[in-house]
Structures are given as structure tokens and as C-alpha cells.
Design a protein that fits this description.
This protein has about 400 residues and is an all-beta fold. The protein has 1 helix and 32 strands. Helices cover about 0% and strands about 45% of the residues.
Length: about 400
């Protein structure tokens, strides 16, 4: 189901927005690392907070001076919200509420507002576990919508969907991967129409795509497949298996895949070379991140592991105050992570064995991955959006 409304006349290519923007899940290129010159903190404190009316573990995204976040409300979570707040003071600039057309069942720990929205700098694309996809301009005007479950009736998961979309150039790529009608779709960002649709491995999958040298890397239990975002054509394929929860980390030179521990790959047209494999690096639910010449993995026991980017050899381990559901993010020399029990923690990665140099008790259940923009960190719970600065 698609409803085209007023359309923008041009698209902004991915990566052309200011460096301070955090346009998708795990930020610039889904790397989880801020590109800003100045990192937040480390002694951050609550700058403002805003109330939210419903559930959600999607991350905030930041476009210019606006913060966007989604949530779901109602007894069956069928009310789908998109909020826009002022980054300066937390004032609500607008809110839109839509009705779900797809299935709203999910595990008690997750919610219908699990996927993080994305933006090309001029539009916001918000998708939900119900497979309802909406495009808004930054002023809150609805541009188009898709009820993907209407189009693909069996694309659902009884535990809930959580793959976040990415926008590359003028194409939005969404994954609806599950045990039945498992698909990935490339959608025209201006019109909401399909550019391509691909069948995907029939297995429950909660990972999110990353972009490597122009190709969209789709992760599943089978491995990692690079596709052309405009056509969906397969450019390379890694078939040695991968996680279905934590996603890959990307640099300009390689992809670090949660596969048999962590496997470092260099994909090229038609081929994938393996640099190294570290079976001892086992991410929990959070995705790994690369900072400088090191890779960091938060394992299922709440231990942050630092390893060499060159070969995966471990440098140190640091136990954090967990448990954790979200992924760590970083800026400068600091890693920021929130625990399920509401502990916001700042890790100095340059300390000899790593060190938690600051923490803030937010006193709520936090399942999200933080966002970083303009020297501040944004986190959310089911009830509240916080800015820490």
C-alpha cells in the first residue's frame, strides 16, 4: 500500500550533511563513531529531557538542530509515533501519529518501535516492526507511506522485527527478514516505489545493513551479501555464516563481521578476502565498533574487549555495569554505552586497561543505542528522551 503526496524535487546524497548529524542507527556509515572534531564529555550531565508517550528501543537520530525519535503506544502498540524535538532545549516541534497496518506482536522486551529511523538530510524515513514505512520532510509533512505487510503478507516475525533502514543516494534499503517471506527491498526515496526486491535467507534476523564502498552489505545467518543499492544486483557474497543480532562494523578498508567470533573481510567485485578471524571476540547483542587502530567488542557477560585492528589479538578486558542490549558508540577517545538498568557509562579507551571515567544514573530501563551530535549524547527509554552534555 502506497500513498504518494507532495514530493521533494531532489535527493541529498548520503554523507553530504554536516559532520555533526547522526542520520541512522550507529551514526555515520553505521560505524558507531562520531566524525566530529570535539567529543562529548567525559563529564556529561543531563542537559534536558523530554517525555515520550509509548514504548521504543529505536535510537534517536539528529539532523541539524532537530532530534527525531519513534515510539509505539496503545494496548497493542498500533499507534506509531514520530517525534521531532529541538536539539537546543528539548521543545517538541512536531509529532505525527499513524496506525499500524501490519502485525504488532513482539517479545515483551522489544517493541513495535524497535527499528531506528534514517535520514538523507532532507527527509526522515521511519519503519516499525509492523513493516509500516513512512517518509516525512523535516517539517513533519508526510511525503509517502508503505504498508509492506500489505504487499508481502508473510513478512513477519512473532518476536518482532528490528532491522533499521539505510538510505544510500536516492534509495532507501529495508530488510524484513524472517522464517517465512524473507525479503530486502530497495525503495525510491522520492516516491516510495520499489526499485528492487530480493528474496533473503528464511531465518529470523534482527541485524541492520551497513554500507561499504557504495554497496549495501546485508547480513544474515548465511553470511554477508553486498548489493548495489540502486539495482539490488549482487556485487560480492560471503557465505561462512554471521550473527543475526549484532551487526557488522565498517571502515574505509574492511568490514568486521560478527562471524565465528569476529572476521575481518575485504570485499571486492565478485570476491571477498579474509584478513583475519578472532574466534574469542564474541559480541553479545551489541555490535562491534572500530576506533583508531583497535576494535572493541562488548560480549554477553558485559565485558568490553579491546583488540588490535590488524589481527584481532586482545589487548585488554574491562567489566562494565550491565546487562546490555544496545550497542556502544564512540567519539574521540571515549566509548559511551547504556545498560539495561539505566547506567550511562563513559570509557576512556586510552587508559592502560580501559577505565570507566564517568557514569550517570538515568534510573530507567534503557535498551537503545546512543546517538552523538554537536558535543552531546542522546539516549531514550520507553518514557523519556535525554540529552547529555
Amino acid at each position: 500500500m502506497k500513498l504518494p503526496l507532495t514530493l521533494l524535487t531532489s535527493a541529498v546524497l548520503c554523507g553530504t550533511s554536516p559532520a555533526a548529524d547522526w542520520l541512522q542507527f550507529r551514526g555515520p556509515n553505521a560505524s558507531a563513531v562520531s566524525t566530529e572534531a570535539q567529543a562529548p564529555g567525559p563529564k556529561v550531565a543531563i542537559d534536558w529531557k523530554a517525555e515520550l508517550p509509548g514504548r521504543g528501543l529505536s535510537s534517536p537520530i539528529v539532523v541539524g538542530d532537530k532530534v527525531f525519535v519513534t515510539c509505539s503506544s496503545g494496548p497493542d502498540q498500533s499507534n506509531l509515533h514520530v517525534f521531532c524535538f529541538s536539539a537546543k532545549d528539548g521543545k517538541k516541534l512536531w509529532e505525527r501519529v499513524m496506525k499500524a497496518t501490519g502485525r504488532t506482536m513482539s517479545h515483551n522486551k522489544t517493541s513495535v518501535a524497535a527499528p531506528t529511523p534514517c535520514s538523507d538530510g532532507e527527509r526522515v524515513f521511519a519503519i516499525y516492526s509492523s513493516n509500516d514505512l513512512f517518509a516525512f520532510d523535516l517539517g513533519g509533512n508526510l511525503l509517502w507511506l508503505r504498508g509492506l505487510t500489505f504487499d508481502y503478507a508473510n513478512a513477519s516475525n512473532s518476536l518482532g522485527m528490528s532491522s533499521s533502514p539505510v538510505v544510500v543516494g536516492d534509495t532507501v534499503v529495508v530488510q524484513a527478514e524472517n522464517d517465512s517471506e524473507s525479503i530486502a527491498v530497495g525503495i525510491d526515496a522520492a516516491t516510495g516505489k520499489n526499485r528492487w526486491k530480493k528474496e533473503r535467507p528464511k531465518a529470523a534476523n534482527w541485524t541492520s545493513a551497513v554500507v561499504y564502498k557504495g554497496a549495501v552489505a546485508l547480513q544474515s545467518s548465511k553470511g554477508l551479501t553486498g548489493v548495489n543499492p540502486r539495482t539490488g544486483a549482487v556485487e560480492w557474497d560471503y557465505t561462512d555464516g554471521a550473527s543475526t543480532i549484532p551487526s557488522s562494523a565498517v571502515t574505509q578498508d574492511a568490514i568486521y563481521v560478527p562471524s565465528n567470533g569476529v572476521t575481518a573481510l575485504v570485499p571486492e567485485k565478485g570476491a571477498v578476502s579474509q584478513l583475519w578471524r578472532a574466534s574469542g571476540l564474541k559480541p553479545g547483542t551489541g555490535s562491534p565498533l572500530v576506533l583508531g587502530d583497535s576494535i572493541y567488542v562488548l560480549n554477553g557477560a558485559g565485558v568490553l574487549v579491546k583488540a588490535a585492528l590488524s589481527n584481532g589479538d586482545e589487548a585488554w578486558k574491562l567489566r562494565l555495569k550491565g546487562p546490555f542490549s544496545g550497542s556502544p558508540v564512540a567519539a574521540g577517545k571515549y566509548i559511551y554505552i547504556v545498560s539495561e538498568r539505566g547506567d550511562f557509562q563513559v570509557v576512556d579507551t586510552t587508559a592502560g586497561e580501559g577505565e570507566v571515567v564517568h557514569s550517570v544514573e538515568l534510573k530507567d530501563t534503557l535498551l537503545c543505542t546512543p546517538a552523538i551530535s554537536n558535543g552531546a549524547v542522546y539516549v531514550r527509554s520507553d518514557k523519556t528522551l535525554w540529552k547529555l552534555k
